[in-house]
Amino acid sequence: MTEKIAFLHTNDLHSHFENWPKVRHYLLDKRAQLRKQGYQVYTVDVGDAIDRWHPLTDATDGQANIQQLNRIHYTAATIGNNEGLNNPHHVLDHLYDHANFPVILDNLYDTKTNQRPKWSQFDKVVKTKQGTRIMFVGLTVPYENGYKFLNWRATDYKKTVPKILNKVKGKYDFLVLLSHLGVDRDRYIAKHYPEFNLIVGGHTHHLFPRGEKDNNSLLVAAKKYGYYVGCATFELQNHKIVNEKATTVRTADLPSQKGDYAEIKDYMDRGNQLLTDYKVAEIPETLHAKLKEPANINTVGLKAIMEATHTHAAMISTGMFLNSIPKGIVNMRQIHNCLPHSIFPMSSLMTGQSLWMLVKEVNKSRSFLSRYPMKGMGFRGKIFGYVRFAGIKYDPKTEIVYYCGKPVIPSKLYKIGMLDHYMFIPFFPVISIMGHNHIFHDKFLRVIFAEYLHRHYPLK
Q1: In 61-156, which ranges are continuous DSSP H helix?
Q2: Does 289 share its domain with 144?
Q3: What family is this (predicted)?
Q4: Do 262 and 118 reside in the same domain of the chain?
Q5: Contact 161/193 with Cβ under 8 angstroms?
Q6: Helices (DSSP H) in 384-444: which residue ranges?
Q7: CB atoms within 10 A of CB 366
Q8: What is the CATH number of the domain that holds 295?
């Protein structure tokens, strides 16, 4: 007897609530349609559903997103780096408290207990009406340099996958990997581990319109932001695949329903109102954001970084500040609009020689970066802009770098406050190669900026 199973899948929604009503309608309608056609249907998400660029996500620590995901009744989900790295440890520990779906995750451990997080489970097995055992396992991209500062340990997928397969051997008929690893790692797994029948991918925002067959595995992925939703169908006989098909649908091609616009607007309005209600400080003058000219908002940003990282010198790029903040009472909505990035403060300890090299790298890239359309690595702006320093000066005639007014000594150690973004982008390699770096992963740039304003310009 032929058995029919189907998997609906989403990935990298990134809090793009403007597409969520259509995504939700499609998932629920398609599931009902497939069931009428005799399919047993499973719905999965493979991470980065949450992104703090959206005011409602930021204001609710992601709980608003979980409420929406609960409306789908996902069979299983895993986390992406946005859930894992953009939430303090205690926030991630409670992110899924009210989720009605299991989080499957096999390569993240709490460094204090050396155990997998209490909110995750190793696998999930569902049994079809015909007795086929479908097993779900999950992996997230192991950004070890980020996770360690949050008291998590992320293990490499090449070491983890063999351990998973050894542990689950003989316990499944159909194996699904929920992967937030990226397309290259998914293809590697498919090539080397034919045990996986289906790999649902994300992270690299790739699209497989009709899937990709690699070795024994069908790879599926639905781009990003809810632009697409995917469906993979299988026909089985005696628990073995005899036919398979993958499709994606573009949500822009789906019809809107009455109330969608009001729903989308409500997400933004509620988030903005929550942030507006959070008053931070009262400033005596407007903080002007300017990409090219000197601006006082850069000075405040530099001071905030120095206080947060306990340093006497700092660097920041002008493209970080998207909007000016007018004089008077400041609320978190204004700060969120100005600094929507998922970027953290960081300190870097390096020798005078390395500091000299860093300043040279900044100067060398100055013209290029001033108009470079920066994307990724937590940045939510448009242009990188110019690097501004505090406590560091450079004399182009003598090529001497000064730290707090004194010429740097090549062998001496110096500590600079900056942003983790600069370590991850390719323009300042001396930071990652020569710097001893510590990311302050408990607070975003906008949070330390708000705290600085609150300390120095308290509400009257």
Answers
A1: 63-70, 81-85, 89-95, 144-147
A2: no
A3: Belongs to the 5'-nucleotidase family.
A4: yes
A5: yes
A6: 421-424, 429-434
A7: 11
A8: 3.90.780.10
Q: Please report where in the chains the tokens 């620590």 appear, as a residue.
A: 61
Residue closest to 423 by CA, chosen among 146, 81, 219: 146
Evaluate whether residue 170 is within a structural domain: yes
Assess if residue 393 is contained within a domain. Answer: yes
**Ordered per-residue pLDDT tens for the chain, 460 residues:** 799 999 999 999 999 999 999 999 999 999 999 999 999 999 999 999 999 999 999 999 999 999 999 999 999 999 999 999 999 999 999 999 999 999 999 999 999 999 999 999 999 999 999 999 999 999 999 998 789 889 999 999 999 999 999 999 999 999 999 999 999 999 999 999 999 999 999 999 999 999 999 999 999 999 999 999 999 999 999 999 999 999 999 999 999 999 999 999 999 999 999 999 999 999 999 999 999 988 999 999 999 999 999 999 999 999 999 999 999 999 999 999 999 999 999 999 999 999 999 999 999 999 999 999 998 888 999 999 999 999 999 999 999 999 999 999 999 999 999 999 999 999 999 999 999 999 998 899 999 999 999 999 999 8
Closest listed residue to residue 351, CA positions, set 393, 414, 438, 403: 414
> Judging by DSSP bridges, how do beta strands 76-77 and 40-45 pair with one another?
parallel
Assigned token pair, 300: 């405040």
